Each structure stands twice: as structure tokens, then as C-alpha cells.
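We were asked to recover a plausible sequence for a given structure. The inputs and outputs are reproduced exactly as logged, with field labels preserved.

PROBLEM: sequence recovery
POSITIONS: 143
GIVEN STRUCTURE:
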């Protein structure tokens, strides 16, 4: 069936669709059943509107969750809409937390690198110092 559909030219496809629509308009139940979901798909959800502050930082998530709960408890949104909004807010919180962690790791790496450079500068005058030149405090005889 898929090969047959793939081989139908664009002009033939348009003619077939036109004929199908014509038969559907005439009341053909099979074609009506086929056409209606494509012409007017069943809406599975609707846009959800409620007042929530913009979310820029992690601290903004809790007021947004409070706005979702207020909208739910005042019957402005359904339980499904509440669940979807909470999921979006949780994903947003996760993203913001990861972003903050990456920034913190970058700062720590910068501090470590600065300290490393300082240590290298301090040791630079002593770079001729060799590990073999260290005194042996083990008490074992040399050799």
C-alpha cells in the first residue's frame, strides 16, 4: 500500500483528494469519517492562561508554581493543565539549576587555575630543586 501511495503523482493525489471531498460532501459515510479528522482535528488540549511572573532565575519558579496552584484552586485550569504547567516549571527549574552549577564549576576552575599559576610562580626560582636532592630521613643507609 505504501509503495502504491508513493507512486501516485501529485496531480493524481490532488484529483483523488478532490473526488474524496466531493463524495464526502454528498454524504458518503466512509469518506466523511476519513475527511473530518483531517479538516477539523479533535482538540486534545487548549491554551492555558494564568498570571505568572517571568522566570529568569531559580527563585522565580516558586512564585510561578504558586500562580499555577492559585489558578487550579480557583478552577481556572484543569488538573491536567496544572500537571502540564508543573512539569514545564520543573523542567525550567532543572535547566536553571544546571546552568547555575555550570557557572559555579567554571568559577571554581578559574580559582584553581589562578592558584596553580601562583604556585608555579612561587616554585619557579626553585625549579632546579631535584627530588633526588631531598635529604633521606628514612634512617636507611645510602646506597
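RECOVERED SEQUENCE:
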Amino acid at each position: 500500500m505504501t509503495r502504491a501511495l508513493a507512486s501516485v503523482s501529485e496531480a493524481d493525489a490532488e484529483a483523488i483528494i478532490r473526488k474524496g471531498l466531493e463524495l464526502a460532501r454528498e454524504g458518503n459515510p466512509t469518506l466523511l469519517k476519513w475527511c473530518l479528522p483531517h479538516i477539523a482535528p479533535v482538540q486534545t488540549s487548549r491554551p492555558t492562561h494564568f498570571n505568572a511572573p517571568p522566570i529568569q532565575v531559580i527563585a522565580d519558579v516558586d512564585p510561578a508554581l504558586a500562580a499555577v496552584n492559585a489558578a487550579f484552586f480557583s478552577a481556572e485550569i484543569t488538573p491536567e493543565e496544572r500537571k502540564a504547567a508543573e512539569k514545564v516549571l520543573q523542567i525550567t527549574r532543572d535547566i536553571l539549576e544546571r546552568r547555575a552549577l555550570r557557572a559555579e564549576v567554571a568559577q571554581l576552575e578559574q580559582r584553581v587555575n589562578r592558584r596553580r599559576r601562583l604556585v608555579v610562580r612561587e616554585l619557579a626560582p626553585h625549579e632546579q630543586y631535584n627530588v633526588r636532592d631531598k635529604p633521606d630521613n628514612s634512617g636507611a643507609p645510602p646506597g
